[in-house]
Protein: Exosomal 3'-5' exoribonuclease complex, subunit Rrp41
Amino acid sequence: MMYSDTGRLNCNVTYTTFATPLRGQAPETKDLSSMLHKALEGAIILKSFPKTTVDVFALVLESGGSDLPVITTCASLALADAGIMLYDMVASVSVSCLGKNLLIDPVSEEESYQDGSLVITCMPSRNEVTQMTVTGEWSTPKIHEAMQLCLDACSKLGKIMRSCLKDAASVPQD
Structure:
């Protein structure tokens, strides 16, 4: 790799063989790794890490549904806890559309019956979306409702993430 004035982000998502109910039936990890990279790269201040690579390795031990939002949120917390300079933490939430109902962070069984899904990843304090993925068929009013639901949930999740980091920082280390 050549010299660069900015840092570089590498993301790798893997599943254990026992992470899913059917052994070895994990989702395509290359796609998840790429999506995690896209979700996090806008939040990390890479120019503060010249000639440096920030590696994010996520190992899923148990898959219960809504994996990407969980992986993204946990990775963001880990980066912040490690002292990596961020513009803001990244919160991610998914919504599934089942008929006329919207379900936030569905479990695997609910995902298998969904008509469509929406995943929003954002920096809640900056009110910036870093990634959005939509699958399935949505009516315009339903997609607006789902987006608002995701953004509200991301805002609440961001507050919880900050609280967890503050609590962890205030605990005396042995």
Observations:
- The chain has a mean pLDDT of 85.
- Residues 81 and 165 are 7 Å apart (CA to CA).
